[in-house]
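Dear colleagues,

For the upcoming journal club I promised to circulate an example of a predicted protein-ligand complex. I picked one with adenosine-5'-diphosphate because it came up in last month's discussion. The inputs are reproduced below in full, followed by the predicted structure.
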Amino acid sequence: MDPYTNPFSPGAGSRPPQLAGRLGILEDAKIALGRVAQGKSAQSQILLGLRGTGKTVLLNEIERYAEEKNYLTSFIEAPEDKTLTEMLYPQMRQALRKMSVVESARSLANKALSGLRNFASVFKVKIGEVDIGVEPTPGVADSGNLEFDLTEMFVLIGEAAKASGRGWALLIDEVQYLKKEELAAIIVAVHRVGQKGLPLVVVAAGLPQIAKLSGDAKSYAERLFSYPAVGALNKEAAEDALVNPIQNEGAEIDPEALEEIIARTSGYPFFIQEWGHHSWNVAEGRRISFQDVEIATSRALARLDEGFFRVRMDRLTNAEIDYVHAMAALGRGPYKSTDVAKQLEKAPSALGPCRASIIKKGMIYSPNYGEVEFTVPLFDDFLRRNR
Ligand SMILES: Nc1ncnc2c1ncn2[C@@H]1O[C@H](COP(=O)(O)OP(=O)(O)O)[C@@H](O)[C@H]1O
Ligand SMILES: [Mg+2]
């Protein structure tokens, strides 16, 4: 069919034509934003799921809701190679600048900007060309202890936001790349602003990892956050994700074709877009058939193998590539680390650093103690296809 009218949207963070199966998560986010805006307590969310399950799309959607509810919003992607403070600084500054133009919030926003100056200097953030334009106030957010100083900054921002009659929503993608202390600092800071009833919300998303928090941060985190799992779509949602966009363009899909796409993609959103996209382009008439999907499958796999899957392999060293192949050779995951070691004929302890490095690169994760699994769905199939 006409590629110009193809409704599907494969691609990281691309808004799907039908955001299927996520009503519960979105409803919870809406309620939390609405409550916090009124100074009421609410559980924030940390969305956890594999790659391509639609976490970034959800964060974007939640950001849109926040804007509708008159929040100032900031969106950051936790960097692999930078510090949280470097990423946060320009966002906090921008939000405060916007608050400072509101008469009722000017003095509190300037107080916060002054604290931010200390914060930037104690954490050695490069301020760049544009200066912040306020004098530093000694003793504010300048202890050098991230947990303490970030909490102070969040409280200052929350107070300025409240005075300006708006909230501040901070969305953080790829939280798995945050260092343990950084995540802990955010959690402690969110706890504090929550206690004070300030209109500040943090919503985060990332790969599922076994809890890396300890102490106070951990006990707060358990109460403060909910951890909705963003997984494969169930059959009904997967059908919605495919059928509605096709019908909205005045086309149709045969039931066997639909079933085949769902089987091939296991209901994973990214793959649904990819298969939908190719099936649409392959189909001659206004109806997608089983045969169309078969052709689409070979095109989709070729494209994934060259792109989505390949770029992830390119980041691994040879020893790491051997490790992931050994995982795939064992069939479907999750895999016991000891079994992978056996497969490689090595001692598990000798493989520890290699395993840790692949986890750090976000390619595999540990769903349970002593186990590993791929963070990319169907990655084991790719590895077996490309041995
Ligand atoms: N609920 C959904 N229904 C259908 N497609 C979706 C859904 N959520 C995401 N997608 C599609 O899946 C792909 C991956 O989404 P993305 O948000 O980048 O995933 P993640 O951030 O989890 O890696 C995109 O092409 C997007 O259009
Ligand atoms: Mg993402």
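Two points we might discuss: The radius of gyration is 23 Å. The first strand starts at residue 44 and ends at 48.

See you all on Thursday,
B. R.
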